Amino acid sequence: MDSVSVSRTVDASPERIREAMADVQRFMAAAGFDAVTVDGDDMTIVNGFGLAAIELDLTLVDRPDAELAYEQDDGIFEAMWTTYEITDADDGTRVTATTEFALDVAVVGAVLDATVIKRQRRKELTAQFDWLESVTDG
C-alpha cells in the first residue's frame, strides 16, 4: 500500500471544522474534481488526467479514529480509503487527511503510477484545506 498524508492547522474550532466537513458535497467538490455526486453514504467522483478521466465510486464509512472516512467500492485502485482526523492545537484545529491506496496494475498500467497519484492527491487535499479555511474564517 502507498500512502499520502497532508496536515494543516486551521484557525477555527473543532466544531466549526466538523460542521464544514459535514457538507460532504461541498467538501468533496473543494478538492477540484470535475464532478462530485453524493447520495446518502454513496459518492461518485470524476477527475480528468490529460486525455483520460478517472471515475471512483466511494462509500462513507465509520472509523473510530476519523471524523470523516470513505473507501473505494469501484474504480482504478485495488484498494483505496481516505480518513480525516481532527485534533485540538494551540493555535486552532489540526486537520490531517490520509489516503492509502494500492494500484490495480491491470487497470492503471503505464499511464499512472504511485508518484503521480500521490502528487495529485496532495493537490486535492490541499484544496480541501484551503476551502476549510475559507468557510471557517480560518
From TrEMBL:
CDD domains: SRPBCC. SUPFAM superfamilies: Bet v1-like. Pfam families: Polyketide_cyc2. This is Polyketide cyclase / dehydrase and lipid transport.
